[in-house]
Amino acid sequence: MALITKTYGKLLAILLSWLGFSAIYTSCAKYGCPCSEVRPKITGSVVSDKNNAPIQGIQVVLKDDYQGYDTAFTAKNGGFFLQYPYTICEEETNVLCVKLQDVNGNDAFEDMEIPVAAKSNQNLGTIRMTSKE
C-alpha cells in the first residue's frame, strides 16, 4: 500500500509541476515585468495638398500584421478617429499602419501609408494627400 501511495504521490507532483509551469509560461509573456495594457486611439485630419481644403470620404484603415484592424471614413471637416480593437502592451515596440485611400469613386488622391508606433493616444495632426492631377 505504501508503494502505491508513493508512486501516485510522485506522479501527482510531476503532473502538478507541469501544469504549474505551463500556466505561468502561457499566462504572461513578460512574467514579473509590469505592462500597461492599452487600446491605441489614433486621430487626425486629412486635407488636400493644393488648397488645404478638408477632404470628406477618405477611407482610413488602422491595421497590423497579426490581429486586426479598424476602418473609418473622414468627416466633412476631414477628421477621423480610429481605435485598435485589441489591447497591447504599451512598452512593446509594436508598429501599426494607417492607410488612407480615396475610395469614394472619383479617385482623385494618391493612396498613403503611415507607420505609427502603438501608444495609447496619438494625434497624427494634419495629413496632406497628394492629388493625382
What is the topology?
Elements: H1 2-27, E1 37-38, E2 41-48, E3 58-63, E4 69-73, E5 79-83, E6 88-89, E7 95-102, E8 112-117, E9 121-129
Parallel strand pairs: 2-9
Antiparallel strand pairs: 1-6, 2-5, 3-4, 3-7, 7-8
Give a nutshell description of this structure:
This protein is 20% helix and 38% strand. With 133 residues, the protein is α+β, with helices and mostly antiparallel strands. The strands form 3 sheets. A 4-stranded antiparallel β-sheet has the order 4-3-7-8, with no helix packed on it. Strands 5-2-9 form a 3-stranded mixed β-sheet, with no helix packed on it. The chain has a two-stranded antiparallel ribbon with strand order 1-6.
Characterization of this structure:
The protein has 133 residues and is an alpha+beta fold. The protein is built from 1 helix and 9 strands. The longest helix has 26 residues, at 2-27. The radius of gyration is 25 Å and the shape is elongated. The N and C termini lie far apart (90 Å).
